[in-house]
Amino acid sequence: MTENIGVVDWQEDAGGQAHADLETTWTMIRAGLRRDIGARMFDQWLKPVRLGDYCPDSQTLDLLVATDFSANFVTGQFGDRLRMAWRSAGAEVRDIRVRRAPDASGPRLLDVTTVEPVIDLLPQAVASAVNFTPRHGFADFVVGESNQLACSAAKAMAAEAQPRFSPLFIQGGTGQGKTHLLHAIAAAFAAHSPGAPVLYMSAERFMMEFVNAMRANETMAFKARLRAARLLLIDDIQFIAGKGSTQEEFLHTINDLIDTGARIVVTADRAPQALESIDPRILSRLAGGLVADIQPASLELRLAILEAKRAVAGDPPVPDAVIDFLARSIRSNVRELEGAFNKLVAYGQLTGRAIDLDFAQGMLADAVRANARRITVDEIQKVCAAHFRIDVSEMRSKRRARAVARPRQVAMYLAKKMTPRSLPEIGRIFGGRDHSTVIHAVRTIEQLRESNPDIDADVRALLRQLEG
């Protein structure tokens, strides 16, 4: 018996006739509920329910579930149906109370790091703690000018305080860090809200699950699972383009979640306005939050990413020359850059081979060829002339006016950094100048980048344009 007078503890009085009668009635009620609401919905929410305490005075029966969230959801969705079922069964139960079992180990969370993300909020089917990949946290996301806005917005979306915007739409090319940010948001959110369900899935998976639910006549269960999420993360939304019924359900889902204060994060490879064959109402909803883009990583950011990886890679050591070679050679996306670094380190560890520049160039020859895009001095001159609004012929002229000389020095600096041309060759292309003039230009721009933010911003913008 519990300490509350008049309350029967069924765990200690399991042999009582009253308990046996209630168990029999509950078995009958469960069969009816499974038939009425469908097997999938029943198995997810009501099958785990077990009998708890019963108070004969108030004729109130406790139904026990694994988490506080499950208790709230079952009460809201099935409370009235459960009361009516118990009263109709003729049992001496006038009211029911759904609550978390006292012996439950605490709130259980959705593990969003499975290889194939699926819709699954079944409390007893998931781990008791979120098991996110450590390298996908905010601490491991290297921030640069190209991804700073997206990272800051992601942190705001994951913070304990309610964000001022939702949904968050993150756009960027393949391998630039969108999925990393989704996992980081989920991990940070779950850390401060362990009882709130987190749901992460690809748009392709969303579409597949919805189609399967329609075929099985279980769309209500599908809707309930999605709308139970307090944080919904959808990756690569562009893949629902042209799928009318899927888009309609997605629209209803985000509308309902926004209305209930849930947080939504969506990624795509382009801006909302550039998504083709997507319902305009969806585009309006997505664009109505915050749109943050991730640009291709600059040379500085690629170097910073490699430095971060080198710091934890262990032996064999990776020399600066190899880091510089990787950053300049693998420009397509961050994922390939990290993969190239991992390949070198793994091979070195397995074979005992020292990692040097010759070794790196040989091992990564195919990757370098795939990323190769020959940037010419002529191209640099044209891009710099357009950026500084001067005629391209001024790059080769003898004029020394600051408005012409400074853009010419920037172009020389970029030519030295981005092409294999020698100093004398660069000097000849810039109007037959001596190699010492090129050296002076390179040193001048290096110093100005450290002391003059405007010059540094100009160089960064030109690097991004040329590398892109």
Shape: elongated
Which class do the helix and strand fractions yield? alpha/beta
For the sheet with most strands, the description reads: 5 strands, parallel
Report the top-level CATH class of the largest domain: Alpha Beta
Multimeric state of these chains? single chain
What is the count of β-strands? 8
What does this structure look like?
Residues 1-15 and 105-131 have low confidence and may be disordered. Strand 1 (50-55) and strand 2 (60-65) form a beta hairpin. Helix 15 runs antiparallel to helix 16 (402-418), helix 15 (377-388) crosses helix 19 and helix 18 (435-451) packs across helix 19 (453-467). This protein folds into four domains: 17-100, GMP Synthetase, Chain A, domain 3, CATH 3.30.300; 123-294, Rossmann fold (3-Layer(aba) Sandwich); 299-371, Helicase, Ruva Protein, domain 3 (Orthogonal Bundle), CATH 1.10.8; 377-467, Chromosomal Replication Initiator Protein Dnaa, Chain: A, CATH 1.10.1750. The chain is 53% helix and 9% strand. The chain has 468 residues and is of the alpha/beta class. This is Chromosomal replication initiator protein DnaA. Oligomerizes as a right-handed, spiral filament on DNA at oriC.
Question: What's the SSE blueprint?
Answer:
Elements: H1 17-37, H2 39-46, E1 50-55, E2 60-65, H3 68-88, E3 95-100, H4 148-158, E4 168-172, H5 178-192, E5 198-202, H6 203-215, H7 219-227, E6 231-235, H8 244-259, E7 263-268, H9 280-287, E8 290-294, H10 299-313, H11 320-329, H12 334-351, H13 357-363, H14 365-371, H15 377-388, H16 402-418, H17 423-429, H18 435-451, H19 453-467
Parallel strand pairs: 2-3, 4-7, 4-8, 5-6, 6-7
Antiparallel strand pairs: 1-2
Helix pairs in contact: 1-2, 4-5, 6-7, 10-11, 10-12, 15-16, 15-19, 16-18, 17-18, 18-19
